[in-house]
Amino acid sequence: MIIHAPYVHGGDIYRNSITLDFSVNVNPLGMPESVRNAIVRAADHLDAYPDPYCGELRAKLAETMHIDEDWILCGNGAAELIYQFIFAVRPKKTILPVPSFSDYEAALKAADCAPAYYSLKREEGFLLTDDILSAINEDTDMIMLCSPNNPTGRLVGRDLLERILERCRETGTWLFLDECFGELTDTETPSLADMLRPGDRVFLLRAFTKIFAMPGLRLGYAVCPNSELVDRICVQSQPWNVSSLAQAAGVAALDCEGWAETTRALMRKEKDYLIRELEGMRISVLHSDANFLMLSGVSGLYDRLLERGILIRNCENYHGLGEGYCRIAVRTHEENEVLIETVREVLHE
Fold this sequence. Notes:
Elements: E1 20-21, H1 33-42, H2 55-65, E2 72-75, H3 78-89, E3 94-98, H4 102-110, E4 116-119, H5 132-135, E5 142-146, H6 158-171, E6 174-178, E7 202-207, E8 220-223, H7 227-236, H8 244-253, H9 259-280, E9 284-285, E10 292-296, H10 301-306, E11 310-311, E12 313-314, E13 326-329, H11 333-347
Parallel strand pairs: 1-11, 3-4, 3-5, 5-6, 6-7
Antiparallel strand pairs: 2-8, 7-8, 9-10, 10-13, 12-13
């Protein structure tokens, strides 16, 4: 009997002896102290049910993003919202550029939708190009995009995103856009939220997980200007799916001015260091706009690092990749130095 589906993500520190985790792309600065304090204060009220409508958090998000509060859905992490969206839309034909986050494909298959793969090319740096526009037609129920993409770290250009949005409006196609890593890019990346109109068939996925280092708390949200779909998702969602602790953390996080800028400054410096050192060891490093790097051509690196207590993300199971592909997060300089020295050791064995 299968009790759990096979675990295909990073962060599995529970079944391995790990001293450093480079497999998850959360902010190495950790959780802001003000957010931690908000969680502690909220713990005094755990004798009450959480607000099932996430009223304060949704109002704060609407104010911050300058959008209608009714467009915002909150969830138990971004993963829950992926499944809720796909089960509400029930698409038959979905364009899925690959490689990309594995839960998109898993959710589609759970909803009896076989994705139509659109292969991103290594020789083009795994970038999404204008060719995608011709793939979207009246028979396309949905297209699923991630910007910056996971595991490649490549952004979809703003101009191309706007043209994809217009093409989806013309064809009646749902546009799913995962923006969860948007705050961890090299420069500030504007959300597509400011381009939306009431009724648009668009679902923007965002999360507090990465930038505020709280994957264990589970807090994601989505922006959807289509009231019919929002109602459908709300009807099928379980009540109290976002805990009081998570809601309090989200409200406090939105008051952390300058947190993203401070994080970006660290990321740019440390990413340059990692690229320089890895390429100096003749390891192929894909250009990345995000806080992680995809490596290729180093067979067995995952296992050899794991033996030394360092966990990276094995990417061989991503559709469109294969042997020798892996992904590392950008961490603090001290942690990055340990990684580099350990990689150097295993390559010289």
